[in-house]
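Chapter review: from sequence to fold.
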Amino acid sequence: MSLIDSSPVTEPRRWQVFTAAPHRVMFLAGAIQLLLVMLFWLAELLGRTTPEWPPLSLVLPSTSVHAFLMLYGVFPFFIFGFLLTVYPRWMGGPVVPGAQYVASFVLLSGGMLLFYVGLFISHMLLMLALAVQLVGWAVVLYSLLAVYRQARNRGPHERLLNFALLAAMLGILCFLYGIVASSGLAFQLARELGLWLFLLPVVFTVGHRMIPFFSQSALINYIMVRPSWGLPLMIVCAAAHVLLEVSGLSAWRFLADAPLAAAALHHSWVWQFRRSFHARLLAMLHI
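The token string follows.
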């Protein structure tokens, strides 16, 4: 009997290749969403400015729809693909099972497809779309928390990212309530939560963790600096901004925004943004 297996090697199917890593499925969905949102807004603007182009007949105000799609329909796919990939590496935890991130991809993509259809048909279909999307978010958050609980090197960055994802789910619930109750305040709260307690904390936290790390390897004589006060100050200022906005005190937002801007400038300075252009990829990470 030959010791060499002469049976033909079967190549993996396209679906197996596509679903082999979480960033593949999520980044593709995010790229498609980015194009769809741009096309949607282009059609809306043409309907407003061009007599020959009929305006879109939507069951919700187009500005609320656009805000929701940008905050909860585009960036999350890229964020999920990134976090599902790096959480195990950052914390030394278990890899996220393929069945979980594929299920979240199907639910999130299906929810967004239903959302587009519901925009032209009925509020009920929109509510169903948001419910499906929330289940997809819950699967992602469950997967990330499972890694977090079993990891050896948990830190403040991961805790804050978990909080930001929870805040985003609360924002989607607010948007859902806005549809049910025709509440402008709920739509406003969904927008503020999505921008200031979801996207801002994610971008700031990921930058706080990654920019000094990559700078240390890309720049000569670079000393890694991660101001420990940066993360708590950021979340306090962001939360204060939301409270001032929804309370009708927008004229006082500078009390939250000015310290946040000062902190951003300080971090940019100590992270040596001016030197980052020696490594263009690092400069893009700063930008």
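Two observations follow directly from the output. The two ends are 62 Å apart (CA to CA). The chain has a mean pLDDT of 92.
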